[in-house]
Write a structure and sequence with these properties.
With about 575 residues, the chain is an alpha/beta fold. It has three domains: about 5-190 and about 300-325, NAD(P)-binding Rossmann-like Domain (Rossmann fold), CATH 3.40.50; about 195-290; about 335-580, NAD(P)-binding Rossmann-like Domain (Rossmann fold), CATH 3.40.50. Helices cover about 50% and strands about 15% of the residues. The chain contains 16 helices and 16 strands. The chain has helices at about 5-20, 30-45, 65-80, 100-125, 155-175, 195-210, 220-225, 235-255, 260-290, 300-310, 310-320, 360-375, 410-425, 445-470, 505-535, 555-565; strands spanning about 25, 55, 80-85, 125-135, 145, 145-150, 180-185, 320-325, 335, 350-355, 380-385, 400-405, 430, 490-495, 535-545, 575-580. The strands form four sheets. The protein has an eight-stranded parallel beta sheet with strand order 9-16-15-14-13-10-11-12, sandwiched between helices. Strands 3-4-7-8 form a four-stranded parallel beta sheet, with helices on both faces. Strands 1-2 form a two-stranded parallel ribbon. Strand 15, helix 16 (about 555-565) and strand 16 (about 575-580) form a beta-alpha-beta unit. The two termini are about 50 Å apart. About 50% of the residues are buried.
């Protein structure tokens, strides 16, 4: 069981201990694991069972060698693994995506998604027929017809969870012949220190950073968030000291460190902290109102769901499913469409377009070239093509093009700044992810191959979108978020195609949807932050080619749709995710 030292993981471990199971605890910190082990041993002793508890401290779920070594140890102690519970998680950056660091983005995905993948993939070597993989995800990434749930300030979190749900489905297909089952459950809000002391307060602080607070600049509110917010709810003397420490740092940066200035600032900081608490309580209250009985789940109730899914009959009935464990009625705007209103090519005249691709596949190279040619012919002011593989230079010689390192934040920011300096305001950025190999099984995939997929379908798109939006905003917008208001531009992600062919198996469809399933909630969350939080007119679109019948993409429709989105055709519409080949001809 991952993430089993505290919270939900500990609650689940207790239920297994009551049932007499042998329990393997793992996590990064030794002390919580030791404390949990003691609790479990007491439960086992009182129950009179023969269950045993093993702990593996210092193991991060994203650590390839650490996980491998742990499962080797488990096999030596217990012989096999019957149930894996993927529970480990972190809050991740609770920030507007423009201000979340690359490091925070990557760490969140590493824990939530890569940790889930590698724990399952490595653990399969210790599993036999009848084994079960239970994955705990979130309802903040699931879809309902033309809806897609966003979760503001949590872009890497929602992307990870969306992919995690689809990965759980995919593993069920891949492991069916081995008699191993995979089920996911999506709890709603759960009573926990994480949600009360981290997620809601940090979200409140972010609202304040963007919206402003009298007497403090946005960058100074960040100091309050870092220095004082962690003490929210503590004893008043501890809060007062934290506020004064934050005030002292702000005063130092202002160049006025006298006692009167620090004292006045401490009062302002205390007021900002109180406002954060007020907003956090409002967020909590609004969420409660969307639940039928107004109650968040308890950690024991989540544990009850996991125990239920462990049952032999239940796991067979629900194999390959994502089971809601929430009762949240979460209304969202419908944002999924099947067609784009095609604009005349003249709408591209005078525009500056940046086309980027990480794929060297002939299909994707041709798509980029065709869109670049159409845009040039339509009178675009400038078309810039950025590609990953320097060997692709020959394909794009007729355009202003560069090979860049898409893994480098500095390189991406530099090239966007250069384009803006030389050619003027960037109107649109279009990125092509290319496809993954749908014949490759996730359950037997090498870690290096998985990491490459994460880079291509999550990290690089996230970095490009972030830097594109920053480039479209006036200088200084990161420090003063109000400057994002009213900015214009479009970003289009062209994600992986649906599989093609006359007979597409459920297995291939499931594999294809893992990273499509990451980009959908990412798109929804990013747009919510762009519009509702920042007041920006920049919009992110996701185009997914191919259809449910396995037909080849209609290239004319695809090209026209992408260019129309790039020209701004859907800026005033809700739709942001487009299945362009599902539309009738």
């Amino acid at each position: 069981m991952t993430g089993s030292g505290t919270g939900i993981g500990q609650a689940i471990a207790k239920r297994y201990a009551e049932a007499g199971a042998n329990i393997v605890l793992m996590g990064r910190r030794k002390e919580p694991l030791d404390q949990t082990a003691q609790i479990l041993n007491d439960i086992i002793k009182n129950a009179g069972s023969k269950g045993r508890v093993a702990t593996f401290p210092g193991v991060d779920v994203s650590d390839e060698e650490g996980i491998n070594s742990m499962f080797e140890g488990v096999k030596k102690q217990f012989g096999r693994v019957d149930i894996i519970v993927n529970n480990a998680g972190v809050s991740g950056p609770v920030k507007t995506f423009t201000n979340a660091s690359v490091k925070e983005f990557r760490e969140c995905i590493a824990i939530h998604l890569t940790g889930t993948f590698w724990t399952a993939a490595s653990g399969l070597g210790a599993m036999e027929k009848g084994g079960k993989i239970i994955t705990i995800s979130t309802f903040f990434s699931e879809e309902n017809r033309y809806e897609q749930r966003p979760y503001r300030f949590r872009t890497p979190y929602t992307a990870s969870q969306g992919a995690k749900n689809r990965l759980a489905e995919c593993l069920a297909w891949e492991l069916a012949d081995r008699g191993i089952r995979s089920v996911a459950t999506n709890p709603g809000p759960v009573h926990s220190d994480r949600i009360y002391k981290t997620v809601y307060p940090k979200a409140a602080a972010e609202f304040l950073r963007v919206g402003g607070y009298p007497g403090l600049a946005s960058t100074e509110i960040e100091v309050v968030t870092a220095k004082a917010l962690p003490f929210l709810g503590d004893a008043e003397d501890a809060v007062a000291k934290a506020c004064r420490d934050a005030a002292a740092e702000i005063a130092k940066k202002r160049g006025k460190e006298d006692e009167a200035t620090v004292g006045a600032l401490a009062k302002t900081v205390h007021g900002a902290l109180a406002k954060m608490q007020e907003i956090a309580e409002k967020i909590q209250g609004n969420t409660s109102k969307m639940i039928v009985d107004g109650e968040f789940l308890s950690q024991d109730e989540v544990a009850e769901m996991v125990m239920t899914l462990s049952d032999e009959k239940v796991s067979k009935l629900l194999n390959g499913r994502v089971i809601p464990n929430d009762r949240v009625f979460y209304p969202v705007k419908p944002i999924v469409g099947t067609g784009v209103d095609v604009l005349p090519e003249s709408e591209l005249r005078g525009k500056v377009l940046v086309l980027t691709t990480t794929s060297s596949a002939a299909k994707d190279v041709e798509r980029v070239k065709m869109i670049a040619k159409i845009a040039q012919a339509a009178g675009a002011k400038q078309v810039i093509v950025l590609y990953r593989n320097s060997a692709d230079e020959a394909h794009f010689k007729e355009f202003h093009s560069h090979a860049i390192d898409f893994m480098s934040e500095d390189a991406v920011r530099r090239i966007f700044n250069t384009a803006r300096t030389h050619f003027g305001q960037i109107d649109s950025v279009v990125h092509f992810t290319g496809d993954s190999d749908y014949t490759a099984a996730f359950s037997t995939m090498a870690r290096k191959q998985w990491d490459s997929l994460i880079d291509n379908f999550l990290y690089i798109p996230g970095l490009l979108v972030k830097e594109a939006v920053i480039a479209m905003a006036p200088p200084g917008a990161l420090e003063e978020p109000a400057r994002f208001k009213g900015t214009k531009g479009t970003v289009v992600l062209v994600g992986p195609d649906a599989p093609t062919g006359k007979k597409i198996s459920g297995l291939l469809r499931a594999r294809a949807d893992v990273f499509r399933g990451a980009l959908r909630p990412y798109t929804a969350t990013t747009n919510q932050e762009l519009g509702d939080v920042l007041g920006s007119n920049v919009k992110l679109h996701l185009v997914l080619a191919g259809n449910s019948e396995g037909a080849e993409p209609n290239l004319d429709r695809l090209h026209n749709s992408i260019l129309s989105l790039a020209a701004g055709t859907a800026l005033k519409k809700n739709e942001a995710i487009f299945y362009v080949d599902e539309a009738r001809a």
